[in-house]
Amino acid sequence: MKTVIVTGAANGIGLAIAKAYVNDGAFVYMVDINEKRLNEEAGKLEQTEAITADVSNYEQVKNLFAHVKDKSGTIDILINNAGISKFKSIWEVTVEDWEGILHTNLSSVFYCSREAALLMDQGGAIVNLCSTRAHMSEPNTEGYAATKGGIFALTHSLAVTLSEKEITVNAISPGWIHTGNYEELRKIDHDQHLSNRVGKPEDIARACLFLTDESNNFINGENLVIDGGMTRKMIYEH
Ligand code: NAD
């Protein structure tokens, strides 16, 4: 049975990823800072353990992996999904805001990947949740865009370094993935995508299974864009 760690697993994309691995027969450590929601969601699933931790905090990450080592010994797969998308006017962003998003979205990926790699004895796979915002932007998204650009670069750097341990490291860049009520979306929301629909968390979960399947280990250091074609649209004003 594969052992998987999913961060930010109490909601949205992370929850869908945790469910997909459970359905695939894996044991999943579901990690999140939101204890109440995490326990509610993990309680509905077999083959999981809920671990409350703030992945932006190095001590908490070390404790989390020490617990996993005690219980499972080794792990096979890490999905670095936890993240926050706070957008704020560039003129109002505080140093606290800046450092908060940097550590939550980017430092966490480094902390968790290094600890996970130490527990991957038989090779393994890491997937980092990046974003199409690593490559293009709306106004007032500096912090988020910078962290996702950092994840893009960290992904290929980790892939090169961890090759000696037979660990593949890839990123997924989702576009618009609706984590709320899908029915509330408007026709215009769907129609602006080449795929004629807004994305769902399961679209990302299936890609995680694909990228972490050993038979796909020739895909390494890559960034898979899953955005219904949104970033392939050329936008001229006519
Ligand atoms: P979400 O807000 O629905 O879920 C994120 C989860 O991460 C929450 O349960 C939250 O409690 C947890 N979390 C936040 N900070 C944490 C911390 N410090 N420690 C542990 N857990 C923490 O978000 P989502 O939309 O499902 O996004 C998941 C990932 O996908 C994020 O990295 C996000 O940047 C990325 N992404 C999402 C979209 C999208 O459209 N939804 C698009 C591009 C990228």
From TrEMBL:
Gene Ontology molecular-function annotations: oxidoreductase activity, acting on the CH-OH group of donors, NAD or NADP as acceptor
CDD domains: SDR_c
One Pfam assignment: adh_short_C2
PROSITE patterns: ADH_SHORT (PS00061)
Domain of life, source organism: Bacteria
Swiss-Prot/TrEMBL keywords: Oxidoreductase
Gene3D superfamilies reported in the protein's UniProt record: NAD(P)-binding Rossmann-like Domain (3.40.50.720)
Protein's GO biological process: bile acid metabolic process
Family: Belongs to the short-chain dehydrogenases/reductases (SDR) family.
Identification of the protein by name: Oxidoreductase
Organism: Jeotgalibacillus malaysiensis
